[in-house]
Amino acid sequence: xxxxxxxxxxxxxxxxxxxxxxxxxxxxxxxxxxxxxxxxxxxxxxxxxxxxxxxxxxxxxxxxxxxxxxxxxxxxxxxxxxxxxxxxxxxxxxxxxxxxxxxxxxxxxxxxxxxxxxxxxxxxxxxxxxxxxxxxxxxxxxxxxxxxxxxxxxxxxxxxxxxxxxxxxxxxxxxxxxxxxxxxxxxxxxxxxxxxxxxxxxxxxxxxxxxxxxxxxxxxxxxxxxxxxxxxxxxxxxxxxxx
Amino acid sequence: xxxxxxxxxxxxxxxxxxxxxxxxxxxxxxxxxxxxxxxxxxxxxxxxxxxxxxxxxxxxxxxxxxxxxxxxxxxxxxxxxxxxxxxxxxxxxxxxxxxxxxxxxxxxxxxxxxxxxxxxxxxxxxxxxxxxxxxxxxxxxxxxxxxxxxxxxxxxxxxxxxxxxxxxxxxxxxxxxxxxxxxxxxxxxxxxxxxxxxxxxxxxxxxxxxxxxxxxxxxxxxxxxxxxxxxxxxxxxxxxxxxxxxxxxxxxxxxxxxxxxxxxxxxxxxxxxxxxxxxx
Lengths: 243, 280
Known about the structure:
- The structure holds 2 protein chains of 2 kinds.
- By secondary structure, chain A is mostly helical.
- In chain A, 76% of the residues lie in helices and 2% in strands.
- Chain A is built from 10 helices and 2 strands, in the order H-H-E-E-H-H-H-H-H-H-H-H.
- Chain B is globular, with a radius of gyration of 21 Å.
- Chain B has 10 helices and 13 strands.
- Chain A binds chain B through residues 1-2, 4-5, 8-9, 12-13, 16-17, 77, 81-94, 237-243, and chain B through 11, 48-52, 54, 67-68, 70-71, 73-74, 76-78, 80, 82-89, 93, 97-98, 100-103, 145.
């Protein structure tokens, strides 16, 4: 019940800011696709680079959509509007509030990823996107929503949200299997990068797109992030002395 | 019944609330008074579980209040000092969000919201977003939101701050009528006449500690029911007397720079905040 309330709140926000959210979700992924995929015409593993790029950009859009939906919103609600107080004092179990945030954030990420899929549909790349791709997008969105939640609980000022984007989202966008394969990276660095959630989400969506088998390792990595950051969020909301 | 037992809140080296022991009876109108930084808002924040105590506990009807205590939280509603609302929601959405958080049926939310917004004179602005409301309208909306769930306990942190005199008086009658229906009310306010007019008992806090706890009348009697204000060296000084005759005798000696009046809770507050209460 509490979960539905939070999703309803996210829906109210989405309905009101539909155009702003849609445009914001489109601009940077579209730029990357146009500049790297269409402007600089090149190939990767003998295939047009665009075929490599699209699954990565879809994963990236899911990440940024989910992260920004939660990080900005929660920081403002907690530190500026103090609207989180309304939730804290209510009888809604706080774990349900957390789960609602994760689902709501993930749906926003999927919306951003879905827009990219729709926009690239006319290109006829022959790439495959199926229910499993959708599940990976959802899981990826949940992971970045929960990371955003933890960071917004740690934020000291609502201006911290853009900083989190610069520290976390920007580096991951460029490093994690989005624009180039992590296989070419130096040893050690490659292993670290491959353990980041976006690397796994990109790799799995790309594998499905190319009709290649998807291993369970990627799901395991995403699930591990979700469990760890989910547990930290729940701990914070129940135990943090000065929320 | 609400019990605060040894309630303490520390922020690093600073102790905002220091071992507060209080008991508020069911249906009581209780005032929490004190100068800025006395720890009133911190106490309300702990009662609303936004802040967790460093030590001590809060019991509601004998059950410990914490963030997991849904049954206790269901009884509570808070009107905070700040406008703690989603600024981008309209009034209907604010009310619906509140109702949903308290698991109210949608029909009931609608009915109560219509009733309250109408009562508060906000019904014509129900589609206006919070950020486009005036300060007074936001304050009224927060009251409507708090009352939507028909709480047993209402926590009010400076509820009339920024309200004009008429709205404040309307608020007083509303609070009196709610208290008349056995709602327990805990109020913090800077307006002493408000506390004197409304509260059954008041607690005077200073530097996080409880200084005085009694009915407004008893606190006034303790200080002296009669006050002589006199201007000495261009400074206004007040002297308090238990007997009218003593006050009049002093007034006659003091000359025309002095006047007699009834002591108010504000006098008690000023003396207490200035640490001079025992001297009087």
